[in-house]
Amino acid sequence: MGEAAIYIITFLFLGVFVALIRYAFREAPPEPLMVSGAPAATVDATAGFMTSRGFAISHQGETSATFTRPKKPSMETGILLLLLGIIPGLLYFGLFRGTQTTTVLAMAGPAGTTLTLSGDDTKARGDLTRWARESLAVDTKRSTLPEAEVAATGQRRRYCGNCGAEFDEDAKFCASCGAARA
Asked: What is the strand order of the sheet 64-70 is part of?
């Protein structure tokens, strides 16, 4: 009985260790993307892309949309349960049901449309970010007006890279969202 308890404790420790490593190396949430086009058109284009990849639309509005897809069971958890006993592992793999969601928010600002991605489906967020950079003319570093507008107005205005709001000349933080000025 003592030897079996050591094995169980060892497997539990390894499971916690693997979970901590996965947590430490998880992806940081992506930065908002600056895109060309109106928010409604951006959301419509995003909905077309996501549905072509097999996602279901659970909500779509003028400036936001939420997409879902079935979540697959975790192999680490399933193997750990199989090691602890055949029945718990089989029940986990057989009865596991879940969904992963991805939400898209497009907001208009003076510097263009800001596209914000969120949700628990990191793979979908990464695919959507790559697609947006290729298809929606994304400019993630845009914080000033284009040179043609500077020449026409004679001044260079600064915009928040987070929400697209115009910075006051002396401001260190965005008055709209609180992000630090770059």
From this structure: 33-35, 112-119, 99-109, 64-70, 56-60
The secondary structure of 41-83 as a DSSP string is HHHHHHHHHHHHTTPEEEEE-SSEEEEEEEPPPPHHHHHHHHH
Q: What is the pLDDT of residues 44-63, one digit of tens each?
A: 999 999 999 889 999 999 99
Contacts of residue 25, defined as CB under 8 A and 6 or more positions apart, other chains included, come to none
Which residues on adjacent β-strands are paired with residue 70? 99
Q: Write the pLDDT tens digit of every residue in 64-80.
A: 999 998 887 777 877 77
Domains of the chain (ranges, CATH numbers): 2-142 (3.30.310), 143-182 (no CATH)
Please give the model's pTM, rounded to 2 decimal places: 0.55
Report the run of H or E that residue 84 belongs to, with start and end: helix 75-84
The residues pairing with 65 across neighbouring beta strands, listed in sequence order, are: 60, 104
Element (H, E) at 91: helix 86-95
CA distance 149 to 140: 19
The β-bridge partners of 60 are 65
